[in-house]
Fold this protein.
Amino acid sequence: MSKQINVALIGNPNTGKTSVFNALTGLKQKVSNYPGTTVDKKEGVCKLPRGLKAHIIDLPGTYSLNASSLDENVVVELLLNKTDKNYPDVAVIVTDVENLKRNLLLFTQIKDLRIPTVLVINMADLMKRRGISLNIPLLEEKLNTRIALISTRQNLGIDSLKEIINNYKSISTDPCLDTSRIDPEYFDNLKQAFPNQDLYKLWLVISQDANFGRMSRKTLDIEKFKTKSISELKRLQQKETIKRYQFINSVLKVGQTIDTTKATGLRARLDRILTHKVWGYVIFFVILLTIFQAIYDWATVPMDFIDGAFASLSHWLKTVLPAGIATNLLAEGIVPGLGGILIFIPQIAFLFLFISVLEESGYMSRVVFLMDRVMRRFGLSGKSVVPLISGTACAIPAVMATRNIENWKERLITILVVPFTTCSARLPVYLIIIALVIPEGRFLGLSYQALSLMFLYILGFGSAVFSAFLLDKVLKIQRKSYFVIEMPNYKIPLFRNVLITVVEKTKAFVFGAGKIILAISIILFVLASTGIGRQFNNADYIVRMEVAGENLSEEEIETRIASHKLEHSLIGVAGKAIEPVIQPLGYDWKIGIAIICSFAAREVFVGTLATIYSVGQDDEDTIKNRMKKEINPVSGVPLFNFASGISLLLFYAFAMQCMSTLAIVKKETNSWLWPMAQLVFMTALAYLVALIVYQFLK
Amino acid sequence: MTVADLKKGESGIITDSSSDEIPLKLLEMGCLPGNEVELIQTAPFNDPLYLNINGSHVAIRHRIAALIQIEKADE
Ligand SMILES: Nc1nc2c(ncn2[C@@H]2O[C@H](COP(=O)(O)OP(=O)(O)O)[C@@H](O)[C@H]2O)c(=O)[nH]1
Ligand SMILES: [Mg+2]
């Protein structure tokens, strides 16, 4: 094996770590989670000159080594644990040339840990416009390190960065600051007790108590040194911070000049409109409308195409493959099941595209600013807006996006209500049912169908906010509330970053859901094509006896036989057993099966119906047309009529049907209580609303 | 006077930010005595406040802003 070194990319949020990471590793990256957390861990490999290979980790953004969130905690834990297999041989601190002063704070902290530390000053392309000039050799001397001045946007300086990483051994590991100066007596005692330990590291371990306080790997026995109160610790941390800034100021005073006449007013001008008390909200609303319009309009074309293509594929498979159980499984189980998930790709991709553009451009922070006060009224935080918007793509990343909400109560409420927002897994259910039961026609130029969809989105947000309001009243959690959000400068998103996000998230979604759907469609197929008892095994004879008097074509008789068999198959029996529970909602047993399967994941609904309706069918019909033809055996009206359709829509709007979300909520809240509460409460609500609406409309 | 008393566009010099309730993160972003703070924008009801603290652009809630002591910068 060739030698490989560990390189950790560290830096404040929005300095361009991920861009540097992408530039170094290209598409050769792997995303996983830090053990026991849902914090994203991005790893990749970069070939350095002279055959050395670098294993690169993109760490979550952090402002300092005094962790105040789970994300930051991951960074601190890694850097404090020399035995971790990812412990960096070299730390690359990514900074933004516009915020060098603040970014250098983290640099000095990491350097004080005596890790070889390279300084990357990114966004060099902005220097001219902002009137910033840097004396790199002088800065290198003062900071005692090597500096790479780069621009990932213009692909400048990446090679010199690789060269510097390659020579990491020549970088001095002397600290910037003598931490013990903030309280000489205390640090003297520490030094005597742990003569072999690095003082700054000790201080960090001790002072984490004043911060996030979730160090999981206690490497040192420092209990008896916890003689200082939280408030004393904070005072010392403040002192330390001031000392660090004094050092940084003295360095930048000579190493950086800023021509303030060049400071552009673009940011100020944009902020004046985008955070305006009236226009800010109007613009936000227009952006949201545009997104929904785009998802509905642009995505339906490829979706219809995928739907049709899978119907033809099933048909085609049957004609070219030898008849038999394997062919049937493929054409009637797997292919329709997969079609039911692949149909989402256009919409998911669009949603992630919009969300990542909003995030990358810096606009999302403005929304947080605008919405904080309003959201607080409902027990949420301005920062809840981001999860609620991402929730329209998928609740899983949305729950994870709550991580930067500082206040635990606000964060918990956000996590609990996010699953109400209309995630993309609900879309296919909505789309197909809306197409079946909502009449075509227009109101003020907008189609009834589009309006219905919009209503469902509003309903999702509305129930999220309303439940938050209730939870805020019910939950008795007192936590100090604080809220700090950085307002980054506006940027035109880097195409490569957006593309990688969209591809990655879509892939994760399709493969994640694809696995469940594949498994379910195989199980369903088997259950639907086996049965016990006379009714199933002698279906052919029984049906022919029954219809003997009627004048039916052979084809019609075949269809009757197929549905008779399905009804008496294992799945039919199971479906019939639960029918009494769902009949008051207007559903038959087939819908019942689909609903039960979709407790694993909502998107299974359409796939399940597709599989159920395909079993024993030969024709090249789309799922939609098959559903349209279904007749309710009790009332004799079409199964998907206005009343049952609305009831189904509302059921899906409220029900908690997503195992992956429950699993994520369990992880993020560290308790089964909350996911179970979600499951029970949302499902009960869904059942009740669907029941009332159906009984009222029918 | 405190940051919460600033009007849009005004600035001041921080004199004290040592209240226990002010998060360390804010200090690390430059909210330290001697640094300049400017009020860029306020949301409706004067909350939150969008500030430029020593070159860092951040938004904080009114309650915390009222804990940061400043003295008016002379023009
Ligand atoms: N002008 C400019 N913008 C950049 C550069 N590198 C990254 N950005 C932008 O900075 C923002 C943050 O980048 P990202 O890599 O996501 O930062 P991270 O949060 O540190 O991972 C994005 O909008 C990027 O498009 C650069 O070299 N020049
Ligand atoms: Mg990143």
Observations:
- Chain B is about 10% helix and 35% strand.
